[in-house]
Amino acid sequence: MIQVLFVCLGNICRSPMAEAVFRHQVKQAGLDHVIAIDSAGTGDWHIGHPPHQGTRDILDKNQIDYKGMLARQVTSDDFVQFTYIIAMDESNVKNLAGFAPEPADGENRASIHKLLDFAPGRKDKNVPDPYYTGNFQEVYEMVEESCARLLTYIRDKEQLI
């Protein structure tokens, strides 16, 4: 099973949006039996909370399910369990280093990327945080495009039909 973890700061805006969008795209591609998706935050402020109302509104508008999603914090086990860890910005990538376990011989480690690495043509590779900007529509458009390209990347890399 290929495991994908989306990571942002609080796990209530960007990463749950990406989780829901990617899960929707994976299901539409008929790959939900081989790709599992989750999200987490580097901070612990919102553990156990549902996605932010702005995230829920934009997902509802686009008919994308987010039922049962609750914020959680990244753990060191995530670096072994997940195949891909997809951060929303450079700050998230730096914060992930504090959770990463020391590599053991033969231990599988997740491949870490920023989501907008999969959006060619974008100069800024950081997804803005709508918790502060309020621009959930702009973030949704970035997430939707980048998740589609991420899926293509994973299909090619993992040789999925």
TrEMBL record:
<dbReference type="InterPro" id="IPR017867">
    <property type="entry name" value="Tyr_phospatase_low_mol_wt"/>
</dbReference>
<dbReference type="Pfam" id="PF01451">
    <property type="entry name" value="LMWPc"/>
</dbReference>
<dbReference type="InterPro" id="IPR023485">
    <property type="entry name" value="Ptyr_pPase"/>
</dbReference>
<comment type="similarity">
    <text>Belongs to the low molecular weight phosphotyrosine protein phosphatase family.</text>
</comment>
<protein>
    <recommendedName>
        <fullName>protein-tyrosine-phosphatase</fullName>
        <ecNumber>3.1.3.48</ecNumber>
    </recommendedName>
</protein>
<dbReference type="InterPro" id="IPR036196">
    <property type="entry name" value="Ptyr_pPase_sf"/>
</dbReference>
<feature type="domain" description="Phosphotyrosine protein phosphatase I">
    <location>
        <begin position="2"/>
        <end position="153"/>
    </location>
</feature>
<dbReference type="InterPro" id="IPR050438">
    <property type="entry name" value="LMW_PTPase"/>
</dbReference>
<keyword id="KW-0904">Protein phosphatase</keyword>
<keyword id="KW-0378">Hydrolase</keyword>
